[in-house]
Automatic annotation (TrEMBL):
Residues 3-156 form the N-acetyltransferase domain. It comes from Lentzea roselyniae. Pfam families: Acetyltransf_3. This is N-acetyltransferase domain-containing protein. Gene3D superfamilies: 3.40.630.30. It comes from the Bacteria. Belongs to the acetyltransferase family. RimJ subfamily. Keywords: Acyltransferase, Transferase. Coiled coil: none annotated.
């Protein structure tokens, strides 16, 4: 995992702040990341959630530099499930990094966390995210109508899942 993924570090706060400033990226963070202190808090929250066993966030690296994030969250040990999310900065898109990171975090979730089912969803108007999901071995399971609400507009999402037993 060291070449592609590593835990977020406090020194990565400027990268998180830059990512949050990208148009539409504010949706990727649970609270506004509009200052270096807020970015540091986000990283501290990631670390705390990992200690609690609730979520595992990793910096996606390109030549050792963080350019994105991949997370397994909503870790539920009764049913052995989790939720995968990912993003990469604009300059890192189109290199296959998100797909590789999604595959790698899935293998981590199956092997290290003992999860059996991973889910993710993307807006229907985001075909690039769909390509990442499919490329990482996640099969489409269906459309959820008007699931998300951003800026007064409702969006349909497509849900995907990958099982530990799926051949990828």
């Amino acid at each position: 995992m060291d070449d592609l993924l590593r835990p977020w570090q406090a020194c990565d706060a400027p990268i998180i702040l830059a990512a949050a400033a990208e148009p539409g990226m504010d949706r990727q963070f649970t609270a506004p990341v509009d200052s270096l202190a807020a970015a540091e808090e986000w990283i501290a929250l990631c670390t705390a959630r990992q200690v609690q066993g609730a979520a595992y966030a990793f910096a996606v690296l390109d030549d050792g530099v963080p350019v994105g994030n991949v997370t397994v969250s909503n870790v539920e040990l009764r049913h052995l499930t989790g939720w995968v999310s990912y993003w990469v900065l604009p300059e890192a898109r189109g290199k296959g990094l998100a797909t590789k990171a999604c595959r790698e975090v899935s293998e981590f979730a199956f092997a290290e966390l003992g999860l059996f089912r991973l889910e993710l969803a993307h807006r229907l108007d985001n075909p690039a995210s769909c390509r990442v999901a499919v490329g990482a071995g996640f099969r489409a399971e269906g459309v959820e109508r008007a699931k998300l609400l951003y800026d007064g507009v409702r969006y349909d999402t497509e849900t995907h899942a990958r099982l530990a037993t799926d051949q990828v």
